[in-house]
Fold Methyltransferase domain-containing protein.
Amino acid sequence: MTDLATRRGLETDVYQPAEDSELLADAACSRLPSGGDGGDEDRPLVLEVGTGSGYVAARVAEETEARVIASDLNPHAVGQAADAGLEAVRADLVSPFADGAFDAVLFNPPYLPTDPDNEWDDWMERALSGGEDGRAVVDPFLERVGRVLAPEGVVYLLVSSLAGVEEIVDRAGEEGFSAAAVADESFPFETLTVLELFR
Ligand SMILES: C[S@@+](CC[C@H](N)C(=O)[O-])C[C@H]1O[C@@H](n2cnc3c(N)ncnc32)[C@H](O)[C@@H]1O
């Protein structure tokens, strides 16, 4: 398992793109509509929660016809995403966004299970740590994301075997979502999966 202290030496204040970012971007880009010639009002509206550097949001903006809003709790991440030319907003999960606003919501959440004694209170901990069970940020996201989804809206959520995929699917079910795995990639210590959640 990746140890936070090891990661810390490699990181700045903003999570930089890694295998998980790429898997989520590939899955979202391959499933969102591209190449349409409709007007602005026909473009899907996509939110990326926890955008970090803006890598996933930028890929979706470049490779699909969606208009993308990039958000993060971390003000340094919002600055980096804005510098990358994205529409960037500081937000805790989906709190400031209107009911039913988005056709798709993407999230590569913090998911590393972390011993409370080994945590530290900085932005990289916020980017990596999912609390003791790895689901401390995923669970409130699942509880709240349905509010901002359009009726046919979908969620693309990156999950790790380290945080318990079955538990996350069960929790999504309690919030009224069905789940399908649309991409996965295995590494020596974890398997990453992109779940598509829909109602
Ligand atoms: C694993 S990083 C992913 C960054 C980027 N999306 C990527 O894939 O490279 C998780 C991101 O979620 C953000 N985050 C953590 N808690 C959040 C919250 N409550 N609301 C919004 N963003 C949050 C972190 O600041 C971090 O940028």
Q: What stands out?
A: The chain is about 30% helix and 25% strand. Helices lie at 4-8, 19-31, 55-63, 75-83, 123-128, 138-148, 165-174. The beta strands are 45-49, 67-72, 87-90, 102-107, 149-160, 178-186, 191-198. The pocket of S-adenosylmethionine is lined by residues 15, 17, 20-21, 24, 49-53, 55-56, 72-74, 77, 92-93, 108-110, 126-127, 137 (CB under 6 Å).
